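Tokens as discussed.
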């Protein structure tokens, strides 16, 4: 056993003064030497609490041991036994709140950098053309029901993290899987919601390609709920259907002035910058009308992504958040990156009106100061307005990033399907089963907006349940 006395390996990053002028990836990844040193910090605990903290059940000590021993191909093979999107998860999964949070080293020092090591293994595979998944036969574990039975067709609606994970696991089990994606490119929130500087599109494309290599078919420009209903998919011969359409319905503040020119939902703002590449105008003819002084309202990862994207498009940016820094739901890493890049933060303020000029363009925001009260349903202190504390700040663009609700198309077009208060599909949390026989769902469509890795975990659970369901047919 290697004894390690050094601290956690820092992640190399672009210099803030350089990166604010480009959309290239901020974090640069470990070198081989850094990865081996960091992997050597792992204590290889007999009871691996880190696995319990992983929604997709990766054998974390095993893949880290392989990196420690420089067996990089075995490390990525171990990862792909459970996770079909390791390059994505290594970049955007909130490991600090899951697997790394349960690492025993976290009690006395910083935990093992599990996410950075996962990213390293995935990047090593890609850089060395060592496509472990091309040996797909070694990863396939055909289900007794699916093996050799071409009638075992499964439909997956949505090619975001939940849908891709469900599709990959079912393809490994031998099912004929068709993924229906509403947009012209697959990837869902991975492609249109997360900026290039945090998750390069090439990584998403390559990991989706590896899922296609398993046998999953992806059909784009297919808006289920409009082109076909769930009932029509069943009538076409699909044994089961999984819905992973995410949370694509933006939430608004309900205040005066939200209709003004240059007010965006974060959904629209990020889709235009990511999927439509408006930051490359005029090379890509999808301009984004953005001013020189941008306000982003919200404190989550989507707010950080919006703010940092606006900054790279040449604007001054401020984030307005109604609670304090401590209550921000954004990943600490993303918040720190934003501060390094020069984004200004106003805490304990809430907008009460977006102000416009005579031609209905944004000219500012009227705000009120807040104080923290007793905890609300989220467990965080409730922000309470302070009477008489109103003030205004000048802005010419506003991006509203206060959350999203589940995509309403499938729930509204499926008769008898039970839904919750926010329009989410009600499911069995362990299986993804809905009240409609053969219909399963998972990810943000069931929970409301959450994390990529939690959606993947839901897709994995649903795949197991769909396999059991089909074996009884």
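Sequence:
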């Amino acid at each position: 056993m290697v004894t390690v006395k050094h601290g956690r390996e820092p992640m190399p990053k672009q210099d803030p003064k350089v990166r604010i002028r480009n959309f290239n990836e901020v974090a640069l990844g470990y070198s081989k030497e850094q990865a081996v040193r960091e992997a050597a910090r792992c204590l290889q605990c007999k009871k691996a609490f880190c696995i319990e903290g992983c929604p997709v059940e990766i054998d974390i000590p095993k893949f880290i041991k392989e990196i420690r021993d420089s067996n990089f191909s075995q490390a990525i093979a171990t990862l792909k036994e459970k996770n079909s999107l390791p390059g994505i998860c290594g970049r955007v999964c909130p490991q600090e709140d899951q697997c790394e949070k349960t690492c025993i080293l976290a009690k006395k020092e910083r935990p093992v950098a599990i996410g950075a090591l996962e990213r390293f293994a995935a990047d090593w595979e890609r850089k060395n053309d060592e496509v472990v998944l091309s040996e797909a036969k070694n990863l396939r574990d055909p289900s007794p029901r699916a093996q050799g039975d071409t009638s075992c067709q499964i439909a997956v609606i949505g090619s975001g993290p939940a849908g891709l994970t469900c599709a990959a696991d079912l393809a490994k089990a031998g099912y004929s899987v068709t993924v229906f994606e509403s947009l012209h490119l697959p990837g869902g929130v991975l492609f249109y919601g997360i900026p290039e500087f945090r998750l390069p599109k090439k990584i998403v494309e390559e990991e989706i390609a590896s899922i296609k290599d398993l046998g999953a078919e992806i059909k784009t420009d297919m808006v289920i709920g409009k082109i076909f209903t769930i009932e029509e998919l069943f009538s076409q011969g699909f044994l089961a259907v999984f819905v992973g359409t995410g949370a694509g319905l933006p939430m608004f503040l309900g205040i005066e002035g939200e209709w003004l020119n240059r007010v965006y939902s974060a959904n629209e703002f990020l889709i235009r910058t990511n999927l439509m590449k408006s930051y490359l105008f005029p090379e890509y003819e999808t301009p984004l009308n953005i001013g020189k002084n941008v306000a982003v309202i919200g404190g989550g990862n989507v707010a950080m992504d919006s703010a940092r994207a606006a900054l790279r498009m040449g604007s001054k940016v401020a984030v307005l958040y109604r609670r304090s820094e401590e209550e921000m739901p954004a990943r600490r890493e993303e918040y720190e990156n934003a501060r390094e890049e020069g984004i200004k933060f106003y805490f304990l303020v809430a907008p009460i009106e977006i102000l416009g000029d005579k031609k209905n363009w944004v000219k500012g925001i009227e705000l009120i100061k807040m104080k923290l009260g007793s905890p609300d349903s989220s467990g965080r202190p409730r922000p309470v307005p302070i009477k008489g504390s109103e003030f205004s700040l000048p802005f010419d663009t506003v991006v509203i990033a206060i959350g999203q609700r589940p995509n309403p198309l499938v729930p509204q077009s499926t008769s008898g399907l039970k839904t919750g208060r926010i329009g989410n599909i009600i499911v069995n949390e362990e299986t993804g089963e809905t009240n409609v026989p053969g219909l399963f769902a998972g990810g943000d469509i069931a929970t409301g907006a959450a994390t990529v890795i939690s959606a993947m975990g839901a897709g994995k659970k649903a795949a197991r349940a769909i396999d059991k369901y089909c074996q009884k047919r």
